[in-house]
Amino acid sequence: MAPILNIQNLYKSYGSVEILKDINVTIEPGDFLVLVGPSGCGKSTLLNCIAGLEPITGGSIDIGGQDMTHVSPKDRNIAMVFQSYALYPTMSVAKNITFGMKVRGVNATMQAEKLAEVAKQLQIEPLLQRRPAQLSGGQRQRVAMGRALVRDPKLFLFDEPLSNLDAKLRVEMRTEMKKLHQKLNASIVYVTHDQIEAMTLATKIVVMKGGVIQQIGTPSEIYNKPANLFVADFMGSPAMNLIPARVHKDASGSRIEIEREDGQSLVLNDAHHTNLPEDVIIGLRPEDIAEAGYRQGDDVQSAVCLVDVVEPAGADTYVVSKLGGKEVTARLHAETNATPGGNLTFAFDLAKVSYFAPKTGERLN
Amino acid sequence: MTDMPHPKAKTSSLSKTVLRWLLYIILCLFALYYLMPLFVMLTTSLKSLEEIRTGSLISLPRDITFDAWKTAWSGACTGIQCEGLRPYFWNSIQLAIPAVLISTLIGALNGYVVAQWRFKGANLIFSMMLFGCFIPFQVVLLPMARMLGLMGVAGTIPGLIFVHVIYGIGFTTLFFRNYYVTIPHELVKAAKVDGAGFFRIFWSIFLPLSLPIVVVTVIWQFTQIWNDFLFGVSFSQAGTQPVTVALNNIVNSTTGVKEYNVDMAAAIIAALPTLLVYVVAGKYFIRGLTAGSVKG
Ligand SMILES: Nc1ncnc2c1ncn2[C@@H]1O[C@H](COP(=O)(O)OP(=O)(O)O)[C@@H](O)[C@H]1O
Ligand SMILES: [Mg+2]
């Protein structure tokens, strides 16, 4: 089966400013692709290019196996939800949802049927006669979704649809979005700057920075094997610990030496990675640093460190210690005895360790 | 914070009331000052010539008579003809209504294009239109006369409509453009994805949003066009003069005794339509001037 969306070597400039550089993305039917990256990295621009709302400077866009590079938005068989929702202010909710069908000359009975179906699905039946100004943020968001769903397109495009909602509603809508995707088995491109949203929703994540794709992969690939320092730092909360270290090779593998303020360096032995350069940045997720005795495995190594800060967070307790000149966060169990200023034996689990080159930021293992 | 009334709050609320009343009194004085000429016009128009000659300018009329109004409307002489303002009033209506409607519609379309369909050179075109607002009337008189001649509409009402539409487009475009730039671009994008085209989006989405600014534009254009004298006197001929020109002729061409009461009545008649427009649509005018963006 042809991919639903196939973007090849896409470039986009505004005047002389290059906004998107050599974008290549493919999604299969039923994929939930999340474009994630910091504000201003070109996510909305890319989405607008896919929709045909912005002409592209180079490359091609196929949708549903057809070349759509120069096709106008209305003929691309897409539906889009905008960040501001862009509801038509003078039309009722019902008219907002049916406007597209009306423009396309769908007959009135069909319109009414579709409207009823979508209204039921999104539970907005009581709102149909209201104007957008009379709706709450969450309700507007639903109406915007309805306007997209009613079209039954090949591809849905969502531009930060949850970013205008308050935190609680955002989490609720996130779950609902996921349910909707599973139910409809729709193909979706979803833009967000929120990495948690990306992790929870995506079947496939594209991480962008400055108009360049940094990594494409499943949520677990992105999380466990970040392609570079940017992805490692951007995805995950609290962020991955990125600690400068020196590598000494010996018969049993690599000895990783991390400097500490008291002059006594911390040494970890990694038997699996034998061809590391001398200077590396070692990446460890907070959950890969535990309290000694609470983590077993072949790659777990213990070391005593000075505890700087203890932050209880309910289910877990975050403990900060200083290693290699960086604040390193460990995620311990809630009942830990760690005290600020005291010593604690940590268990470093190297099973999921990442190494990066300090200069280029690229992943080494 | 507590709910206890602060002693200081009481005195300050008292001084606030005093200040407020002072403000009202001053405003009333200003209003009276501005209303004075209208008062004099109205009373004079209701007096007989005899009474005007003998009485004081600001006294109330002793016997109210509408003779002057009758004369102004249908009997006063504008040169050799003595048909009053009536035919010219009708000319002005025939002229103002199409000119206002056409210039408003074109302004709305222009504003929509410049604000929402930014194309290469859009800003330049808009700046040039803006510049058009500041060209003094006198500068365009000769070229315009030549052009009307070439078009074969010199001295006709359609010719005058054309002149007013051209001269008004700068302003109407400015009004609509400033209103439409406050509307998020995502609205047009959403409509495009929905399948609507240029005119459909204008008609179904932007025009329905535009009532406040339409009112502002209509009032502005109507006042400009109805009150215009220079274009009217330059580009009309005997049968097509607008009411302002006729008013001037009535006031200036009376021979013998100056009929102040007729002049005043004629002036009020000539000004009535603009007054009416303000009274009917005034509240929208203020609202439209201050209307900001449209909440999605
Ligand atoms: N119409 C435009 N003209 C010029 N530059 C633009 C335009 N639209 C967006 N940009 C620039 O493109 C970059 C990417 O914008 P955008 O795609 O909106 O970022 P994101 O959605 O990732 O926050 C920004 O630096 C922005 O300033
Ligand atoms: Mg954006």
TrEMBL record, chain A:
Family according to the record: Belongs to the ABC transporter superfamily.
Keyword Nucleotide-binding attached: yes
InterPro entries, per database record: AAA+_ATPase, ABC_transporter-like_ATP-bd, ABC_transporter-like_CS, ABC_transpr_MalK-like, ABC_transpr_MalK/UgpC-like, Mo/tungstate-bd_C_term_dom, NA-bd_OB-fold, OB_MalK-like
Entry keywords, A to Z: ATP-binding, Nucleotide-binding, Transport
ABC transporter domain residues: 5-235
Keyword Ribosomal protein: no
Pfam families linked: ABC_tran, OB_MalK
Name under which the protein is recorded: Sn-glycerol-3-phosphate ABC transporter ATP-binding protein UgpC
Position of the signal peptide: none
Gene Ontology MF terms in the entry: ATP binding
TrEMBL record, chain B:
Domain ABC transmembrane type-1: residue ranges: 89-281
Localization in the cell: Cell membrane
Pfam family, one: BPD_transp_1
Regions crossing the membrane: 21-42, 95-115, 122-145, 157-180, 201-222, 264-286
UniProt cross-references to InterPro entries, sorted A to Z: MetI-like (IPR000515), MetI-like_sf (IPR035906)
Record has Membrane as a keyword: yes
SUPFAM superfamilies recorded: MetI-like (SSF161098)
Lipid bilayer topology: Multi-pass membrane protein
Keywords from the named record: Membrane, Transmembrane, Transmembrane helix, Transport
Name listed for the protein in its UniProt record: Carbohydrate ABC transporter permease
Organism (species): Parasulfitobacter algicola
